[in-house]
Write a structure and sequence with these properties.
CATH superfamily of the largest domain: P-loop containing nucleotide triphosphate hydrolases
Largest sheet: 5 strands, parallel
CATH architecture of the largest domain: 3-Layer(aba) Sandwich
Number of domains: 4
Radius of gyration: 24 Å
Distance between the termini: 61 Å
Structural class: alpha/beta
Shape: elongated
Strand content: 5-15%
Strand order of the largest sheet: 2-1-3-4-5
Helix content: 40-55%
Number of strands: 12
Length: about 425
């Protein structure tokens, strides 16, 4: 029998909630304050915690934060009596599964409890699958590096591979965010589950309304395809404002059915502060934000990565895995800024190896733009040559606000005009 711990300082609320919840098959338990709730959770395992936000001496937000600190998988639903969404968004920020605004309808309460229980069961099943899988081998095979920044990232990804909480990957283009999303999907999804990949910069608002939002907040075809697997929303900062608001209701109704992984190329929280990104959507997707470092901040990894890309390249004369880079070539590769990150490095190494006549690559065989500091491109110049369509889509998504588009892209837009 599923269990729910009800935390409220009014005994009358306990009695009312028990009368409503108990007949639906939930076992109920009670606490009158946050400290008592923490003590009960140490001794007993509850599937759900339903807690009021306005309690003394420990309020619901403090209780939430302490519960999530001790058990990141805890499913906590916050009750708030305030008419504004400010306290509800704050609860989402600290990891609440959902919130209910008093006075709430009985059907709304029961629907939220059912969603919470489904999420709890889904999370538990996927955690077992992840712990028995071979995601460690996948990590080592697909994420390469030994630098401090990379080691920290690897530890975060390894931990994320065992939980179902929504993940936000933040970083520049080409840093490996898609690879991480694929690894997380493989670690916690069933073998035949789908990874549904949606690029918010390249999809139209009409396609979002059809594929993502669907009818009555229940989600469209993309959401149905992702059930049991992963919904992967790339470049979330480019999602149109109207779609952002509607996506919140879709996630409330369906997020228990799939893993949600999003990527962003800029600081979404700053956009929230400026009123340019929906606050509740941000906290629903960003409970576990991960910074993916650019290649220039992990230059120690470049020799290893160059060797890896060389082994994958094709050379008609010899086995490309035997390629060696001279000390001066390694120096050039390590000094260059790599505005296109791993994508650009892979392209350069593949082209050099394909045309190499010997198994030893010197600096003179590397492109001039790498060897001559004066010719190093900015990120904007690199995007201008590589991803003009993406730049145009970002400007369009920002409704022509080029200053905002420039901050999202991390470039001077004059460079990509």
């Amino acid at each position: 029998m599923p269990s729910v711990l009800i935390v409220d300082d009014l005994v009358s609320i306990h009695e009312m909630l028990e009368a409503v919840i108990a007949p639906t098959g939930f076992k109920t338990a009670f606490a009158t304050d946050g400290e008592q709730a923490l003590a009960r959770c140490k001794n007993d395992k509850f599937d759900l915690v339903l807690a009021d936000i306005d309690m003394k001496p420990m309020d619901g937000i403090t209780l939430l934060r302490q519960l999530k600190a001790s058990d990141p998988g805890a499913v906590v639903i916050i009750m708030t009596a305030y008419a504004s969404t400010e306290s509800a968004v704050q609860a989402l920020k600290f990891g609440a599964f959902d919130y209910l605004q008093k006075p709430f309808r009985v059907d709304e309460l029961l629907a939220t409890l059912r969603r919470g229980l489904e999420y709890r069961n889904f999370q538990a099943a996927q955690t077992v699958a992840a712990s028995s899988g071979a995601q460690g081998a996948d990590l080592e095979a697909n994420l390469l590096g030994q630098s401090p920044r990379f080691t920290k990232l690897l530890a975060q990804v390894r931990k994320l591979a065992t939980v179902r909480t929504p993940v936000l990957l933040v970083g520049e283009n080409g840093t490996g965010k898609s690879t991480i999303a694929t690894i997380l999907h493989a670690a916690t999804g069933a073998a035949d589950s789908a990874l549904v990949r949606i690029d918010c910069a390249l999809s139209t608002e009409a396609s979002f309304r059809d594929g993502l939002l669907g009818q009555n907040g229940e989600g469209g075809a993309w959401v149905r395809q992702a059930k049991g697997g992963t919904l992967f929303l790339q470049r979330l900062e480019c999602l149109a404002g109207g779609v952002q608001k509607e996506l919140v209701s879709v996630l409330r109704n369906t997020a228990h059915g799939f893993r949600l992984v999003c990527t962003a190329g800029c600081d979404l929280e700053q956009l929230v502060d400026e009123g340019k990104f929906h606050d509740e959507l941000f906290y629903r997707v960003a409970s576990l934000p991960v910074q993916v470092p650019p290649l220039r901040e992990r230059a120690e990894d470049i020799p290893l990565l160059a060797k890896h890309f060389a082994a994958q390249a094709a050379n008609p004369a010899f086995d490309s895995s035997l390629i060696e880079f001279t000390e001066d070539a390694v120096g050039v590769l390590s000094s260059y800024g790599w505005p296109g990150n791993l994508t650009e490095l892979g392209q350069v190494i593949s082209k050099v190896v394909a045309g190499a006549e010997t198994r030893v690559v010197t600096s003179q065989q590397l492109p001039l733009r790498l060897r001559d500091v004066k010719q190093w491109p900015t990120l904007g110049e690199f995007l201008a040559g590589q991803e003009k369509q993406y730049v145009d889509q970002v400007i369009h998504a920002c409704r022509g606000d080029k200053a905002l588009a420039a901050r999202i892209l991390g470039v001077e837009l004059v460079k990509v005009a």
